[in-house]
From TrEMBL:
Domain of life: Bacteria
GO molecular function: DNA-binding transcription factor activity
Organism expressing this protein natively: Nocardia vermiculata
Extent of Basic and acidic residues compositional bias: 157-173
Name of protein: Sigma-70 family RNA polymerase sigma factor
Positions of the RNA polymerase sigma-70 region domain: 19-50
GO terms classed as biological process: DNA-templated transcription initiation
One Pfam match: Sigma70_r4
Ranges for region Disordered: 157-177
């Protein structure tokens, strides 16, 4: 039932997007109503009630959202835990999905996980946490992660630039960077978010929440970029901005 409900919402989004496209092509809303055999009031209702076009950034839904399950020692035993900033990033993504009328589930990304789950999903995970992240990055023709003696960086193959995290280099600097990609994989969408540290993931999720209209390109099978964010001593993101991209197959 959830899957069919999600598809009904997607059909409403497509209808709204089609009306707006027709209007941008030169038709008035009165003319559109006449061609569809409905009233102009019904057109206004569709435009106001259907979700935004950017809903499709995350697919049709339901969307599974995953963060790494980490392990640490407590009382002499190794115990699983979730990083609090990863959890904040997941909550931010879930808030965004709720705003877009997308149903969701969540799941742990174990350290040996190699593949995303079935269906539309959001993977919030860096390459050092699980191989699923590295496998997704290897399929990205534009951006990737690299590790050397100075730590992790995000590498831009278009410019040959290496983007490093100020926070990784000096933890008194409260600025980090993160990566995002949105790709089509058959009939589903995979969104990947990865920070140099977990606060970089949170900053990227926050930036996407506020700027989906800037990055959503429905005709591109891949969209990605790099986000820089500032945060306070409690690891609350105070500002975020696009550092690289958005890159698409069409640009």
């Amino acid at each position: 039932m959830v899957e069919y409900q999600q598809r009904a919402i997607e059909l409403a989004r497509l209808r709204k997007a089609s009306i707006e496209e027709a209007h941008l092509s030169g038709l008035s809303y009165t003319e559109i109503a006449e061609k569809l055999g409905v009233t102009k009031g019904r057109i206004s209702q569709i435009r106001s009630s259907a979700p935004r076009r950017e809903r499709a950034f995350f697919g049709v839904g339901p969307v599974a959202v995953g963060i790494p399950r980490r392990f640490g020692r407590e009382d002499g035993r190794e115990r699983p835990f979730f990083d609090a900033t990863d959890e904040a990033a997941r909550s931010t993504v879930e808030e965004t999905l709720t705003q877009l009328s997308l149903a969701m589930t969540n799941f742990p990304i174990d350290p040996d996980q190699t593949r995303p789950p079935e269906g539309d999903c959001v993977i919030i995970c860096g390459p050092k946490s699980a191989p699923v992240a590295q496998n997704l990055l290897e399929a990205d023709p534009f951006l990737g992660f690299d590790h050397d003696d100075d730590g992790w960086s995000i590498v831009d193959s278009r410019t040959d630039e290496q983007h490093r995290s100020p926070y990784q280099d000096d933890n008194s600097s409260r600025t980090d960077i993160g990566y995002f990609s949105r790709r089509t994989d058959g009939e589903r969408i995979i969104v990947h978010i990865a920070g140099i540290t977990s606060v970089g993931s949170l900053g990227t999720a926050r930036w996407l929440q506020d700027n989906l209209d800037q990055v959503f390109e429905p005709t591109s099978a891949l969209i990605d970029g790099v986000v820089e964010c500032d945060f306070d001593e409690d690891f609350t993101v105070t500002n975020s901005r696009l550092l690289v991209g958005p890159y698409t197959e069409n640009t």
